[in-house]
TrEMBL record:
Pfam families: Gly_transporter
PANTHER family tied to this protein: INNER MEMBRANE PROTEIN, UPF0126 INNER MEMBRANE PROTEIN YADS-RELATED
Compartment annotation: Cell membrane
Native source species: Methanococcus vannielii (strain ATCC 35089 / DSM 1224 / JCM 13029 / OCM 148 / SB)
Topological category with respect to the lipid bilayer: Multi-pass membrane protein
GO cellular component labels: plasma membrane
Protein name (record): Glycine transporter domain-containing protein
Length: 208
C-alpha cells in the first residue's frame, strides 16, 4: 500500500536523522560510547513512543526491533561523521541539517498517525509536533539543558505549520499520500529558511 510505503520511508529517514543528531550531541558533550548510544536512540525513538502512548497504542519500537536497529545504524553514522569531520563537528550546520530532516519526517508520520486515529484538528497538531520535537526534548533533558525546542529559535513552530498544512490539504480533498509529502516539504523548507535567516519568536524577560 502506498500510504504504508510513505510512512515507512518517512519513519526510516526520521530515525536515522535524529539518531545522528542525538549521537552528535552526546559526542560534543563528551559522553562515552554507551552515553552516545543511549542519547542517539532516545532522540530517535522518544517522539514516536510519546505519540503512540497518547493514542493508547503499545509503542511499535518496544514490540519490534526494526526501529532500534535503524537507530543504532544512525549512531554508527554519527560516529563516522565525527571521525570524518572531527574538528568541524562544532559547525552548527552539521547537527542542524539532519535535525531539520528528522523534524520534517517525524512531523509527517505524527500527522499521518493522528489522522488515522481520527483526532481533532488540534489533536493532529499536537501529535505531529510531539512526534517531531519529542525526541529532541528528551535528549536535551538528559543533557540537563532547557529543551532548545522551547527556547532557541523557530523550531517547533515548523512542525505546527506542517501539521496545519497537512490538515488543510486533507480538508481540500488532496490525496492522503500527497498531503503527507506536502507536509514534509513545508516543514523542511520552513526550517531551513529559519536556520539561514536566523528566525526566532519573541521573548519576554522579567525585570529583576
Amino acid at each position: 500500500m502506498i500510504t504504508e510505503n510513505i510512512f515507512f520511508i518517512m519513519n526510516i529517514i526520521g530515525l536515522l536523522a535524529f539518531a545522528v543528531v542525538g549521537s552528535l550531541k552526546g559526542i560534543k558533550k563528551g559522553l562515552d560510547l554507551l552515553g552516545i548510544t543511549v542519547l542517539g536512540i532516545m532522540t530517535a525513538l522518544g517522539g514516536g513512543i510519546t505519540r503512540d502512548l497518547l493514542v493508547n497504542t503499545i509503542p511499535y519500537a518496544l514490540m519490534y526491533p526494526n526501529d532500534i536497529i535503524v537507530s543504532l545504524i544512525g549512531v554508527w553514522l554519527a560516529i563516522v561523521v565525527f571521525k570524518v569531520f572531527n574538528e568541524d563537528i562544532s559547525n552548527k550546520y552539521i547537527i542542524q541539517i539532519p535535525d531539520a530532516i528528522g523534524l520534517s519526517a517525524f512531523t509527517t508520520t505524527g500527522a499521518m498517525i493522528a489522522f488515522n486515529f481520527e483526532v481533532s484538528f488540534f489533536g493532529v497538531i499536537i501529535l505531529a509536533t510531539l512526534t517531531g520535537v519529542g525526541g529532541g526534548i528528551i535528549s536535551d533533558i538528559l543533557l540537563q539543558k532547557t529543551p532548545s525546542a522551547l527556547t532557541e529559535d523557530f523550531y517547533a513552530s515548523c512542525s505546527i505549520i506542517g501539521a496545519v498544512s497537512f490538515y488543510l490539504c486533507i480538508l481540500s480533498n488532496v490525496n492522503f499520500e500527497i498531503s503527507a509529502v506536502i507536509c514534509s516539504i513545508i516543514v523542511l523548507m520552513v526550517r531551513i529558511v529559519a536556520i539561514l535567516c536566523k528566525w526566532s519568536l519573541p521573548k519576554f524577560y522579567s525585570e529583576k
